[in-house]
Amino acid sequence: MTTQPVGTTTPQAPERHGLGDAIRTWWEALPRVQQWLVGAPLILLLALLPVINPPLITTTATNFGVVMATFAMTALIAIGLNVVVGQTGLLDLGYVGFYAVGAYVVALMTSPSSPLWNSPDHGFFSGPWAWLACVPLAIVITGVTGLILGTPTLRVRGDYLAIVTLGFGEIVRLLADNLTEVTNGASGLQGVLYPELGRSDESPGGVFSTANNSTDLNYGVWWYWLGIVAVIIVLIVVGNLERSRVGRSWVAIREDEDAAEIMGVPTFKYKLWAFVIGAGIGGLSGAVYAGQVQYIDPKAFTVINSMLFLCAVVLGGQGNKLGVIAGAFIIVYLPARVQGVEVGGQALSEYKYLFFGLALVVLMIFRPQGLFPARARLITFGRQVYSVARRTPHPAPSGSEEARA
User: Cβ atoms within 10 A of the Cβ of 330, count?
Assistant: First the structure.
């Protein structure tokens, strides 16, 4: 039997990794400045997609710019829900409630049919900058709503928390439908204001108005660009939180809440943080939705929409910010892409819930972590530690001092 010299290591076969792992490893090894330099052209290319209208991906039955605007808004929702579900591990089935609160805040403050005003002229909130002024207001009010909901309910876990949040989403929708003196009920709120920029003879309402149906740069393209800016800002904020003490606490709670509490993590405090931050992002997405469609009614905030938002997070990969954006693109783009395509006299877009259900079943069987799962690793010094840990150890020379020891 042969003996191995002390201090030497047996060479191991190199690990096999797919193309996705190779790209991810290369990306995570780059300094942050280089990541922005590489990502900036990709962001610019994504921003120009509705202008270029690539023939392979352009939707035919629906304007591609409007589809991409809806995708940007849904991406905001997915990022906010990912903070609660993906990074903290809290099952929230009523996230559409925060989305509705943000939309109704903007609509109630700016709509001329709002029962708060009953007048087309209500001071500052009827001016050209009213929508922009209402966005931080919607974020704050929705965050306070998350605080009010989370303070008594985050003491329960698992299925109980899911039922409570599901009830919250339905309560918000029913209140919007029945409080006619406040929300105008099922009739909705019309004439919601938007950023009145770029007024001209061709677009008297500005570039963000739904009346701007220009061939090249219609209102959907402008809302898509505004959504991209909002997504980038939210990604920067959430990314910094993820690399801080708050993010590490979220991961600890997600992995094992009892162990995290034993180790001294104030779990209730950080769960409440996640709930409030996720609610604020949901309020931002609701404000974008209100300005984009310029009409709000309770039918847009049903439970099925909340399930679709959760579907985007699960499909893309819980805990992965870029993954949930990809999931948002899937649930928005695919129904629009097959719209107008009929099989057996039925439009394929009518079966979108069936397709998403089948996709989730298949995904849970073969890839339960999602299409782009989050990699469990250290967050604070992730790049340095991860690059060192992946280095293959080399055997020490046989004549070295370590081998003779």
Answer: 18
Per-domain residue ranges for the chain? 64-314
Long-range contacts of 386-393 (CB under 8 A, 24+ apart): 386/28, 386/29, 387/28, 387/29, 390/25, 392/12, 392/14, 393/9
Fold category of 64-314 in CATH:
ABC transporter involved in vitamin B12 uptake, BtuC (1.10.3470)
As a whole number, mean pLDDT of residues 305-331 equals 89
Q: How would DSSP label each residue in 97-159?
A: HHHHHHHHHHHHHH-TT-TTT-SS--GGGGSTTHHHHHHHHHHHHHHHHHHHHHHHHTTS-HH
User: In the prediction, which pLDDT does 365 show?
Assistant: 87
Q: What is the CA radius of gyration of the chain?
A: 25
pLDDT, one tens digit per residue, over 7-39 is 444 444 444 455 556 766 776 777 777 777 888
CB 285 within 8 Å of CB 70: no
What are the tokens at 217? 């740069």
Give the pLDDT of residue 200. 75
DSSP 195: -
3-state secondary structure of 25: helix
The C-alpha atoms of residue 68 and residue 371 are separated, in whole angstroms, by: 21
- CA 302/CA 215 separation, integer angstroms: 33
| Paired tokens of 68 | 């991409």
Q: In one letter, which amino acid is 372?
A: F
Residue type, 400: S
Torsion from C-alpha of 266, 269, 271, 273, nearest 10 degrees: -140
| Cβ atoms 140, 277 nearer than 8 A | no
**Residue 237 DSSP SS3:** helix
